[in-house]
Amino acid sequence: MSAQKEAKVIDGIVKKSGDSSLIAILQEVQSHYNHLPPQVLTLLSAKLEVPLSKLFSLATFYKSFSLEPRGKHIVKVCLGTACHVKSAENLFDKAKRDLDLSAQETTTKDLRFTLEKVRCLGCCSLAPVVCINEDTYGSMTQEKLSATFKKYR
Length: 153
Ligand code: FES
Hints:
Number of domains: 2
Radius of gyration: 18 Å
CATH topology of the largest domain: Glutaredoxin
Distance between the termini: 25 Å
Bound molecules: FE2/S2 (inorganic) cluster
Largest sheet: 4 strands, mixed
Strand order of the largest sheet: 2-1-3-4
Number of helices: 7
Order of helices and strands: HHHHEHHEEEH
């Protein structure tokens, strides 16, 4: 994306955000780009006359923000206690294999999926639980997980 086009996007987001907080603006930027590209943060810093260090500190403090490109679909495998005792770690390993991710990778090369571990999704009675975007899947099995991924491909 050209710097000119990025500047136009940032102008639009800032204009639309009005007096919103920096966090709300960063959420809008992340929603648009699916992450917070550093070059866009630089433009935003200049536009808002806010130190770039402040934007980076917010972007790195909140786990919901990412400076790295993320997949279109965010897969969260719960490894909280209730899910852990129901073999959620095996589900996570299966997800890695299904998504063809190496040990260090969290996002597929085609940017379709990002895989994350989380600690309790607040629905322990459904353990083990996997969320894909806003969808929650309880009593998950390795077989069901593979079939579920197909819905998002
Ligand atoms: S431990 Fe997994 S939902 Fe609570």
